Inverse folding.
């Protein structure tokens, strides 16, 4: 019984060391995707599709939504993602930003 316990402890230790070595090697090979936190330049207004502009300026949109457009930039978001008429889009995870 004691031999089995020692063998289990030894096997666990070997597995842990092997995992630690393999993950540290993999971590050393990873490069950061981007180190800059600067925003991408805005899409020029002339490149925003007319259907997006028409939808944003639609009289059917609630006034409360239009008031928030300056911060939300729906024209930029819809153009960036390539949203086209007839597509179904869902906001899966809405969040907010805390201000300092």
């Amino acid at each position: 019984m004691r031999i089995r316990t020692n063998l289990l402890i030894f096997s666990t230790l070997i597995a842990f060391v092997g995992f630690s070595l393999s993950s540290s090697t993999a971590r050393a090979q990873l490069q950061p995707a981007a180190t800059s936190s600067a925003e991408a330049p805005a899409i020029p207004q002339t490149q925003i599709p007319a259907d997006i502009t028409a939808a944003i300026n639609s009289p059917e949109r609630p006034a409360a939504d239009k008031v928030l457009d300056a911060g939300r930039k729906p024209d930029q978001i819809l153009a960036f993602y390539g949203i086209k008429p007839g597509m179904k889009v869902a906001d899966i995870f809405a969040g907010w930003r805390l201000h300092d």
In short: DSSP finds five helices and no strands in the chain. Residues 32 and 38 are 15 Å apart (CA to CA). The first helix runs from residue 2 to 29.
